[in-house]
Each structure stands twice: as structure tokens, then as C-alpha cells.
UniProtKB/TrEMBL annotation:
<dbReference type="InterPro" id="IPR050411">
    <property type="entry name" value="AlphaKG_dependent_hydroxylases"/>
</dbReference>
<keyword id="KW-0560">Oxidoreductase</keyword>
<protein>
    <submittedName>
        <fullName>TauD/TfdA family dioxygenase</fullName>
    </submittedName>
</protein>
<dbReference type="InterPro" id="IPR038492">
    <property type="entry name" value="GBBH-like_N_sf"/>
</dbReference>
<dbReference type="InterPro" id="IPR003819">
    <property type="entry name" value="TauD/TfdA-like"/>
</dbReference>
<keyword id="KW-0479">Metal-binding</keyword>
<comment type="similarity">
    <text>Belongs to the gamma-BBH/TMLD family.</text>
</comment>
<dbReference type="Pfam" id="PF02668">
    <property type="entry name" value="TauD"/>
</dbReference>
<dbReference type="GO" id="GO:0016706">
    <property type="term" value="F:2-oxoglutarate-dependent dioxygenase activity"/>
</dbReference>
<dbReference type="InterPro" id="IPR042098">
    <property type="entry name" value="TauD-like_sf"/>
</dbReference>
<dbReference type="GO" id="GO:0045329">
    <property type="term" value="P:carnitine biosynthetic process"/>
</dbReference>
<keyword id="KW-0223">Dioxygenase</keyword>
<feature type="domain" description="TauD/TfdA-like">
    <location>
        <begin position="125"/>
        <end position="360"/>
    </location>
</feature>
<keyword id="KW-0408">Iron</keyword>
<dbReference type="GO" id="GO:0046872">
    <property type="term" value="F:metal ion binding"/>
</dbReference>
Amino acid sequence: MQAKIESIDAGAELLTVDWAGGGSDHYPWTWLRDHGEDEASLDPGTLQRRVDTFAIDPGLRGIDVQVAGNGEALTVAWSDNSPATTLSAARLAECAGRLPEEGTLSPDHPRLYWAAGSLPDPVPNVAFEAVRSGDSGLGAWLRNIHVYGFSVVTGVPATDEGTVELATRLAPAKQTIFGDFWRLSAELADHGDTAYSTQYLDPHTDSTYYHDAPGLQMFNCLEFDGKGGESVLVDAFAIARAMHEETPEHYETLSRVVVPGRYLEPGVHLRAERPPFRHDREGNLVQVTFNNYDRAPFLLPADEMAAFYAAYGEFHRRASDQDNWLKIPLRPGMTLIFDNWRCLHGRMGYVGKRVFYGCYHDRADYESRLRTVGAAA
């Protein structure tokens, strides 16, 4: 979609823009001065603002407004004789919500919400060689993660070095108390966490005790000799959408009640809190946080506590329903990466030996790569 200006109307307080495709929007004069895209307003190299926002006179008015470029831009001359400001129709339309906002994540590849039976067969995957050899393969990997919340990578060397090469193709690994890269096995006792065991793990998100929980988590299978141990994924956004439609009172509770998470071991005490369902300014769900293992003690008034337990239990019931599960038996040569803000992950109990090497990625780093490399068709 291309934005084109049909006509304008300059008023005392604001400028009205009528669009060629229908509709109109209103822009305050101070906003127009603050959002100029000409070189005096915006550095063309860094795209950082040059306008001194705090020096703009609140009484500033546009005294001459001209539509340019066949409706694709406008130029404003100002009452204080400051340099004229130019804005593109695209920027005006974007900020008014008529075009996707700058930085929208992969707008041409919308998310697909799933239960186990609705996924493609085979599950979304890319080849290691494709990811490492060019941006086409890397982009396909990123889009899988965005669309489905996860991706398998095949043909990955079952080594620490292979894991690092794959992970850093996306972005630097995120440093946490576990390090940048970490080994996961029941034979290790590096941390007091149930992940370092052979027992079944309920589906959950990681790092509820971090204010900036990792955006992605990656496991590369180095060794497997045993039975069981399948990785479990659940699309928590699909569950949340179902709750919004079927039990809206529970959805509202999980969007409102702030739940603390904690991690304790000698020399470490991490704590953070947020609602299980977190939304952006427009009300879109952006993060699910759910980990009953790491939930810290908290108390609400009795009626609110009852509402929380009912809503939290409803979410757990749906997350525990195996109709919502994807089970992936990871073997050497296979890597699983998933969106820790969207997908719950768990593990079936196992006997034998199972060794993973993995890492986290920061959310901002992942989104940056998705906007730049993953946005390509």
C-alpha cells in the first residue's frame, strides 16, 4: 500500500490531511516540526533527530504548507522563520496507523497459531548449511521462528563449536547466570535447577526471574543414548487466544495480576515480576510468562487470590493437554530454537544419557535480525 495525500487543510492548531484512498488524519503543528525528515530535522546517516524538541515554541504555526511529489510528501514553512520541514506521506500515514509501523516484525509473514495437529509435516525446519552460507537461509530460519514460534535446524555439527557457529549466525548469545553458552545434562550439577535432571518437566517459559527474559532459547543435541526425553513445545499464544474467547474473565486476570519469579542458589538471588499475559500499548499480546517451578510466594486479597488460582489453573490445564503439544525427539545433528516469549517448553522424563549445548538470545537482537534479514521474501 502506498500513501498519497489528496488535499490538506491548515488550521490554527493542526494540519488535516485527506488521503487519496479515503479518510483523513490530524497532526498538531508541534508534532510536524518534531517529526521532520529533512536534513535539518533528521540526520540522514544515523536517522537520529536533529530537531531540538524542547526549543519548539508551543505556539508555533505552519504559515505555508505545500504538497509535493505527486502527493507523496509535504513541506511546511513556519511562523517563527525556522527552516522549512519536509515529511513524507508514508511517515504521516504510518504514525496515524494507516501503514504498518516502522519496525513492525515481518508484516508479510503473519504469525500462525497452532496445536499439535495443525503444524506442517515435517515441522518447520532449515538446514544448517543454508543458514551458515547466506542470508536466504538465515532469513528462512528467522521467519520460521516468527511465524511458528520455533524452528528445527538439521545437519548441525554435534559439537560446542557447531552450536556457537549456528547461534552467532543469528546474534550474540545472551549472558545470564548460566553463562553465554551452557551444557545441559543430568550428569551435571552446575546449578540448582530441575532442568539438570532426568525427570519430566511441565511446559514453562524460562527466566521469569529476569526483568528482561531471553527472547529465544536454543538447544543443540550433542549426545543421546537412552529412552524418552522428547522436547515438548506448546504455543502459549494459541492458548491465550482461546482463553480470551472462551474464558475472558481468566484472560483478564492473567493480564492484570503481577506474578513474581525467583531464582536462588548460593550467591545468587534473582527476582522479577510481571503479569503472565503482557500486552503492548495497543492491547496486543507480546509475552507469556509461565513457570510454576520458579514462582515466588505472593499473597492477594482472598477473592483476588481465588480468581488468580482459577485462571492460572485454567492456563495450566490447557498447557498440559497433549492435544496442544508438539513432541520433538532431538538427536545429534538436530537443533531446536524457540521463542521464549511465546512458546512453553518442557521435557518428557527419560533414562540414559542426554546432553545438550545451548544458549539464550536477547529479544532485541532477535527482532533486529528479523527486521533486517528476516523481512526479505
